Automatic annotation (TrEMBL):
Active site: 226, 261
Endoplasmic reticulum listed as a keyword: no
CDD domains assigned: ALDH_F3FHI
Single GO cellular component term: cytoplasm
Domain (Aldehyde dehydrogenase): residue spans on this chain: 8-449
Short name of any one Pfam family annotated for the protein: Aldedh
Keywords, ordered alphabetically: NAD, Oxidoreductase
Family: Belongs to the aldehyde dehydrogenase family.
Record-given protein name: Aldehyde dehydrogenase
Catalytic reaction list: an aldehyde + NAD(+) + H2O = a carboxylate + NADH + 2 H(+)
GO molecular function, one term: aldehyde dehydrogenase (NAD+) activity
GO BP, sorted A to Z: aldehyde metabolic process; response to abscisic acid
């Protein structure tokens, strides 16, 4: 009875949509004071976010348990600790990031010097998604603050406990004249989207991504769209199968029970190797989650009944019947679905044409592992692409011929936790990127500044354009 149903959540209106314009105006006025530009202000806000996460750790874990029954360790590793790391990195590097970057000049401008100055964009809107409701909210907010912007955060209504925790605490800890939280669903987000922003950072599905981009176009507002897609895993046969199976499981069922944007969506392997891979996955799944995974405390539930029904529809399609080789158990009352593996589902099935975003894992088989490249390239560009192999040639060919937001060889998910790498999609999986310095850059304008003196004033550039000048 305590589970949030889509309809109930949709009805919650916490923000008067008529006040969107005045909210943005207030922020604009505060931003104009220039206070967000100072290094000291940024550092104070970042330290406050860190303090919020430290002080409220227990409440955060509890909110994530309510929203997703997220296991405590998972909450700690993938939400709390990653938010902390993003904050600490920004604090450590901020001075360096803010420093104007010297640029080379050419003979055309001699004598001169040049630099690239990072300046805040202004007022930014961050719209986040429910699956990592803390990290996906605070991580972009950290980037926006580090870059000196005013921010409105709109957390996801599908994770209501985390949304209200952020609404309750964020403004208490930070400077709420320039950092605000607005709760709500489509109506509230639409009211916010009507306003003029200097950047919109959206995390979620591509359907709403298009709504965001269309709204932004009216004001010529740049957007970052962190979307999803079907992230493939190619499995070669010359590998350490046990390690590969464990890493696939960690990325799929160990990450929010598959409700993660870069979770393995489907596997491609050879017909000959598929039985070995399935056996290894079954064996490791049992070791991780026991004989009855529906009873396991170490696996998240499906977020709500809407998404449960969506996943069941993928599993119940006629084309897919008889293809389950492992799992398939479900408990609708508790919104639980066991890790489920399917073999050789048709390419035109729903499950192979929609992002799964849940605990179902189809395996497609090919004659030769190289044939997998064509399967991937015939589909929309994924957010992540994974390959398990020891072959140097296959690795090179994979990186060279497949376009994806990011790639990881011989593991899953971990590229997201590498702050020196940009995180973002390409094509249908999104545009723009963030994490580490890329977050700072995502919310900064790179202003080109050229300095000249009054010397070196070549007359050749001025009229009259005599024949002699044209020969120069
Ligand atoms: P969601 O339902 O939480 O929606 C995302 C945001 O869009 C929410 O804040 C919501 O209020 C808002 N929204 C919903 N409908 C709207 C509308 N009609 N108009 C305006 N705003 C609206 O999240 P979701 O979309 O179910 O999230 C899952 C998707 O997000 C998957 O595709 C997943 O791959 C992707 N995702 C991507 C990343 C990433 O970093 N690239 C991370 C997490 C999730």
């Amino acid at each position: 009875a305590t589970l949030p149903l889509m309809a109930e959540v949709e009805q919650k209106t916490k923000f008067d949509t008529n006040s969107a314009a005045s909210l943005v105006q207030d922020l604009r006025d505060s931003f104009s004071s220039g206070k967000t530009k100072s290094y000291e202000w940024r550092v104070t806000q970042l330290k406050s976010i860190l303090k919020l996460v430290d002080d409220r750790e227990k409440e955060i874990v509890e909110a994530l348990r309510k929203d997703l029954s997220k296991p405590e360790l998972e909450s700690f590793v993938s939400e709390i600790s990653m938010t902390r790391s993003a904050c600490k990195l920004a604090l450590k590097e901020l001075k360096k990031w803010m420093k104007p970057e010297k640029a080379k000049t050419s003979m055309t401008t001699f004598p001169s010097s040049a630099e690239i100055v990072s300046e805040p964009l202004g007022i930014v809107l961050v719209i986040s998604a429910w699956n990592y409701p803390l990290l996906l909210s605070l991580d972009p907010v950290i980037g926006a603050i580090a870059a000196g912007n005013a921010v409105v955060l709109k957390p996801s209504e599908i994770a209501p406990a985390t949304s209200s925790l952020l609404a309750k605490f964020l403004e208490e800890y930070v400077d709420c004249s320039v950092i605000r939280v607005v709760e709500g669903a489509a109506a509230e987000t639409s009211a916010l989207l009507e306003q003029k922003w200097d950047k919109i950072f959206y995390t979620g599905n591509g359907r709403v991504g298009r709504i965001v981009m269309a709204a932004a176009a009216i004001h010529l507002t740049p957007v970052i769209l962190e979307l999803g897609g079907k992230s493939p895993v190619v499995v070669d046969s010359d590998i350490n199968l046990q390690v590969a199976a464990r890493r696939i499981i960690a990325g799929k069922w160990g990450c929010n029970n598959g409700q993660a944007c870069i979770s393995p969506d489907y596997i491609i392997t050879t017909k000959v190797y598929a039985p070995n891979l399935i056996d290894a996955l079954k064996c490791e799944l049992e070791e991780f989650f026991g004989k009855d995974p529906l009873e396991s405390e170490d696996i998240s539930r499906i977020v709500n009944s809407y998404h449960f029904a969506r996943l069941m529809k993928l599993l119940d399609e006629d084309k897919v019947s008889g293809k389950i080789v492992h799992g398939g158990q479900q408990d609708e009352a508790h919104l639980k679905i066991a890790p489920t593996i399917l073999l050789d589902v048709p390419e035109d099935s729903l499950i192979m044409n929609e992002e799964i975003f849940g605990p179902l894992l189809p395996i497609i088989t090919v004659d030769k592992v190289e044939d997998s490249f064509h399967v991937i390239n015939s589909r929309a560009k994924p957010l992540a692409a994974y390959l398990f192999t020891n072959s140097k040639n296959l690795k090179e060919e994979f990186v060279r011929s497949i376009s994806a937001g990011g790639m990881l060889i011989n593991d899953t998910i971990l590229h997201l936790a590498t702050s020196t790498l940009p995180f973002g999609g390409v094509g249908e999986s999104g545009m723009g990127s963030y994490h580490g310095k890329f977050s700072f850059d995502a919310f900064s304008h790179k202003k080109a500044v050229l300095y000249r003196s009054f010397g070196g004033d070549a007359s050749a550039r001025y009229p009259p354009y005599t024949a002699r000048k044209q020969r120069l």
